[in-house]
Amino acid sequence: MHWEGVFRILSDRSRYIGIDEFAPDRVLLGIAVWSRYDLELLDRLQGTLTENNQLPAIYVFDVDECHGAAADFERYVPGVGKVYHTPIVGIWRNGVLTGRASGFKGRQLLAETALLE
Fold first, then answer.
1. Which helix (H) or strand (E) holds 59?
2. CA nearest 49: which of 85, 101, 4?
3. What is the per-residue pLDDT across 40-63, written as a single tens digit (0 to 9) for each?
4. Full domain range(s) for residue 66
5. How many domains does the chain have?
6. C-alpha angle with apex 82: 78 to 87, nearest 5 degrees?
């Protein structure tokens, strides 16, 4: 599936210029591009986004660019803690980080915010 124009892809860490420069209502997802489950998650999100224009901006980054370093994950989603599985999920409302999780709990968080059906 082709996601250009639907998600804002952070293609390398050099383009990551600081969380304050992003939309105040946003979701930041860290995915493994080799994970079928993460790619299916993006497909499901794309379906939700194309049906509903009221949803927040969604930014996506490749966790492999972080080389598994906890400090890098914290830079993207402060307070996410130890990450054992993807996706990494951060949710901001009015510029305030209101939710963070990874793995299964990250998927649950997306479902609770009505981003996944």
1. strand 57-62
2. 4
3. 888 888 777 767 666 777 888 888
4. 21-112
5. 1
6. 75
